[in-house]
Amino acid sequence: MSQFPEHFLWGAATAAYQVEGGFDADGKGPSIWDIFAHQPGATYQGTNGDVAVDHYHRFREDVALMAEMGMQSYRFSISWPRLLPKGRGEVNEAGVAFYSELIDALLEHNIEPMITLYHWDLPQALQDEGGWEMRSTAEAFVEYARLCYERYGSRVKLWATFNETIVFIGHGYVTGSHPPAVKDPARAIQACHHVFVAHALAVKAFRESGIKGQIGFVNVLQPHTPLTDSPEDKAAAALADGIYTHWLYDPVLKGEYPAELVSQTQALWGVPRFAPGDDSLLKENIGDFIGLNYYRRETVVANNEETQLKANHSGERNSGHEFGFKGLFKFVRNPNGVYTDWDWEIWPQGLTDGIMQIKARYGDVPIYITENGLGAKDPIIDGEIVDDARIDYLRMHVDAMEEAMRQGADVRGYYPWSFIDLLSWLNGYQKQYGFVYVDHHAGLARKRKKSFFWYQKLIASRGEQR
Questions:
Q1: 94 three-state secondary structure
Q2: Any idea which residues are catalytic in this one (predicted)?
Q3: Domains and CATH numbers, the chain
Q4: Would you state the pLDDT for residue 314?
Q5: Residues 455, 456, 457, CA angle at the centre, nearest 5°?
Q6: Is residue 55 a known part of a binding site?
Q7: In the beta sheet, which residues pair with residue 325?
Q8: What is the pLDDT, as a whole number, of residue 115?
Q9: Phi and psi for 11 in degrees, rounded to 5?
C-alpha cells in the first residue's frame, strides 16, 4: 500500500531570481545577482535573470498551469530587494502587492504557498556594506522577515528562512563562482555563522508574531560514499559529511556546531566569532521542520593533490573536474555510476539513505523534500517535449522517498525542482528542470511537457500511478 497519507503535499518549486524577471520593475532594487550576472564571463553565454521567464508579469498564467497539473502546494522565494530596495527601511509597496496577489491566486486554486525568504538574491545595498560577513545583515534580514510575516502571515502557513547555505556561502566565499566572488574559507565561516544567527532571529520573530504555521530551514542533502574501503577514503568521506552536512544541519536542528569541527576552525582561523548570547539564541530557536534538496550523492577519496574548485556548467559530459580540497578530500566519478550531462550522478538510493541519516542524527524532525529533479536538455519530437528521462528520474526518487517513509521517516511533502524551465544560475537556460517548457524564441510561450501529464496523474492518484 502507498505510504502517502491524505495530508501529504504534492508540489513543485522555483526561486524568484530564476523565474520572475522584472529586475527593475515597479521600484525593485538591485540584488547581488542582478549585478554579478552582468559581469563578463560570470555565467554561461552571459545569461541573466533580467527577464528570466517573466513570471512577474505572467504569474496568473503560471498558477493556472499549476492548478491544471493538480499541484497542492507551491514553494517559491520572495525577492528581498523587491520588498526593501535598500535591504531595510523604506518598503516598496508595489513589490509587496505582487506577492500578495500571487498568494491570493494560489489560494483561489487551493494551492498552499510555501515561502522561502532567502534564495540567494541579497540586496546589493547590503552587500555594499559587507553582506553576510556583517552582523548587521542578519539584523536587516529579521526586519525583512517581520515585514513578510506581517503582510502574508494570515495566508501562509509554511515558511523557510534560507535555501542551501552550502551553495550561496560555499560558492560565494570559497570557490568564488557566485557573488560576492570571494575565495577565503575564514570569511566563509563567519558569513555562514551570521546566516545561522539570522535564521534563529527570524524563527524567534515568527513565533512572536503568532502566525499559526511552521518555519524551517532548507539544506542540500548530499550523502557521501567512500570510493574504496581504505581507512583514508573512509576518513575523507566522514570529513565531507561533517562539512557538507553536520556543519549546516546541527546549528538549525541542534542549536550548536559540531564540536570537533568548530574547535578546528577556531584554532585555524579564529572563526566563527560569537557575539554574546549567540549560543542561547541558536539553542532556543530550533526550526519546526527541515527541507531537503536532494539531487545526487558524491563519491569521495582522500586528496593529496592540489585543490580544484571548478565544476561543469556547460552541459558537456565529462567536462567537470574532480572537485576537492588538498589534504582533505575530493569528489570523483563513481565507475559504476549513471551521470547527467552536467556530471551529476543519478542515485535514488541516496534519497532513502540521506533521509534516514537525518532521522538517525536529529530524531523525528518533520521533513519536506523541497527540491529534487533532473537537469537535462529535453528532446522535442514532433512538437512534443518528450522528457522521459525526467519521468524516470522522478519515479525512482518517489519510490526512494516512499521507502524512507516506510522505514519511519516523517516526510510531509514533495516539491520537484522545478515547476517551469528557468534560469539555472551559472548554467543558463539550456539546463532544463521543469514540467513546463518555455520557448525563448516564441515570446516565452509555455508548453506542457510529457512529465506534466505524468505528475498530474501521480498527484491525482496520491502517488499510486507512477
A1: helix
A2: 164, 371
A3: 9-302+355-460 (3.20.20.80)
A4: 65
A5: 90
A6: no
A7: 329
A8: 98
A9: -135, -155
Q: DSSP assignment of 127-146, as one string?
A: HTTTGGGSHHHHHHHHHHHH
Q: Contact at 8 Å (CB) between 293 and 220?
A: yes
Q: Compute the distance between CA of residue 18 and CA of residue 24 in angstroms, rounded to an integer.
A: 15
Query: 3-state DSSP call for residue 191?
Result: helix
Give the pLDDT of residue 221.
98
Instruction: Please state at what angle helix 135-152 crosses helix 93-108, rounded to 10 degrees.
Output: 50
Q: Per-residue pLDDT tens for 80-130? A: 999 999 999 999 999 999 999 999 999 999 999 999 999 999 999 999 999
Q: Which amino acids are annotated catalytic?
A: 164, 371
The residue ranges of DSSP E strands in 79-139, in sequence order, are: 112-118
Q: Cell triple for residue 349? A: 538510493
- Looking at this protein, which amino acid is placed at residue 461? S
The 10 Å Cβ neighbour count of residue 323 is 19
- pLDDT value at position 316? 75
Reduced to 3 states (helix: H, G, I; strand: E, B; else coil), residue 382 is coil
3-state secondary structure of 384: strand
Q: Are 111 and 73 in contact (CB under 8 A)?
A: yes
From residue 184, give the alpha-carbon distance in Å to each of 134, 190, 274, 302.
15, 10, 19, 22
> How far is 142 from 159, CA to CA, in rounded Å?
14
The CA distance from 23 to 159, in Å, is 24
Does residue 152 have a known ligand-binding role?
A: no
**Backbone Cα Rg of the chain:** 21
Residue 131 contacts residue 432 (beta carbons within 8 Å)? no
Which positions ≥6 away from 71 have C-beta within 8 Å? 10, 11, 12, 111, 419, 459
Coil, strand, or helix at residue 311? coil
Q: How is 31-78 classified by DSSP, letter by letter?
A: BHHHHHTTSTTSSGGG--TTTTT-HHHHHHHHHHHHHHHT-SEEEEE-
Residue numbers of the chain with a pLDDT score lower than 70: 1, 312, 314-315, 319-320
Helix axes 165-173 and 185-209, enclosed angle (nearest 10): 150
Residue 18 labeled ligand binder: yes
- Position 61 scores a pLDDT of 98
> What's the Cα-to-Cα distance from 245 to each of 111, 156, 261, 391, 409, rounded to whole Å?
31, 29, 12, 28, 18
The total of other beta-carbon atoms located within 10 Å of residue 34's CB is: 22
8 A C-beta contact, residue 288 and residue 215: yes
Residue 367 cell numbers, joined: 521533513
Q: Whole-model pTM?
A: 0.97
pLDDT in tens, 1-58: 678 999 999 999 999 999 999 999 999 999 999 999 999 999 999 999 999 999 999 9
